[in-house]
Amino acid sequence: MTPAARISAAIEVLADIDARRRPAADALKDWGLAHRFAGSKDRAAIASLVYDALRRKASSAWIMGENTPRAVVLGMLRLQRGLDAGAIAALCSGERFAPEPLSGEERDRLATADLSGAPAHVAGDFPDWIEPSLQRLFGGDLVPEMQALATRAPLDLRVNTLKVSSREEAHDALPHLGAIETPLSPLGLRIAPSEDGRGPAVQSEPEFLKGWIEIQDEGSQLAALISQVKPGEQVVDLCAGGGGKTLALAAMMDNHGQIYATDNDARRLAPIHDRLSRAGVRNVQVRTPRAKADAVSDLDGRMDCVLVDAPCTGIGTWRRNPDAKWRLRPGSLETRRKEQATVLDRAARLVKPGGRIVYITCSILPEENDDALSAFLERHDGFRPEPHDALPGQAGLQSLTEKIRRTAYGLQLTPHRTGTDGFFVAILRREA
Ligand SMILES: C[S@@+](CC[C@H](N)C(=O)[O-])C[C@H]1O[C@@H](n2cnc3c(N)ncnc32)[C@H](O)[C@@H]1O
């Protein structure tokens, strides 16, 4: 397919996403099935155009003066891909499979594209109804913070110290990936996003299959490190899902002590078994929930650490899932908040006197972070937030100290400040 035909296809897919209010991945898959002539490179390039358009949907529509799939793609080519009006006009030739030629107004707008005067939710590409919440966290940094969340994310890997002695060893075994060391996590390797947004097929690398590396954002690696779990501890990973954090904790504990990994959704937990065995983890007991029974009821009051990687809106991962931002609704935030209260209350019963709850979200909304914790502290006597100034240093992450944003109770990572996904981490200590 020609570059112009790929742009036409991206406009078509965006129209489908809008019309049927469906996830981008589903619309892209259907497009591929209906256009079998398109090869894998074409499909990847179209997906990349669609995701870039979703990242910059509001600002692209703003510069073009209308919110149609065509306007969003044209605006994105200008704002995100840096093409000038002439280059975009050359792509829109109107020839077979190419988009229709630019109108006079489109050409003018592309030539003078400018976001000055745009409201924050347009310049930062996010739904306007969350602006007051984000303003509470970011204040004057709101727009640069949200613009950073609208960029493409790199692919981060975590080196598994249960299998490899050092990050260098894994790095040297994978020279063809062109990875660099992540600046903040001592275990991370980073592969920059490519020009067309395609990543390497890391999951088919022999080193991946041998368990040397896992795909994990640096922010998620840091959140696990901040928990400071140690060999010999008794730990519940209450919202273990596919096990990203579980694997990181097991490596920190060097397979000593015990992690009980559970989740209320057995389907989400299912992939953990293969991942644990590939990673050489031997100190994790998976507790799969059966019907409505509590899978960890025998552990109440006995845990040194309960990790609550809470269900959340996932706003901190919008670089990777840009279509999620336009589907977020106030109702889903309310649902997540109730779930957060439920998991925190469950964690409180598991932790022993002197033990701790590590609360993590991949959100930047205060409602899901500090507010969830202050409501918890109102409901539960005998817990206090761990002073968070010292946490990065205690976790051996001095380089994080200057960069991280501190909130009332926790630490907030963001693409703008720490170059990671948006993660929140706080520790609540149960009094001894
Ligand atoms: C952010 S995801 C976990 C990601 C995972 N820890 C990782 O690092 O890959 C949140 C998880 O919480 C689970 N969850 C939601 N409500 C829960 C509850 N009441 N008890 C336990 N898990 C719950 C969801 O099924 C989901 O898998």
From TrEMBL:
Q: Gene3D superfamilies, per this entry?
A: Vaccinia Virus protein VP39
Enumerate the GO terms in the molecular function aspect. Answer: RNA binding; RNA methyltransferase activity
What's the protein called, per UniProt? 16S rRNA (Cytosine967-C5)-methyltransferase
Where are the active-site residues found? Answer: C362
List positions binding S-adenosyl-L-methionine.
D263, D309
Task: List, alphabetically, the CDD domains matched.
Answer: AdoMet_MTases
Q: Which family does it belong to?
A: Belongs to the class I-like SAM-binding methyltransferase superfamily. RsmB/NOP family.
Q: Name one Pfam family in it.
A: Methyltr_RsmB-F
Query: What organism is this sequence from?
Result: Microvirga flocculans
Q: Which domain of life is it from?
A: Bacteria
Record's keyword terms, sorted: Methyltransferase, RNA-binding, S-adenosyl-L-methionine, Transferase
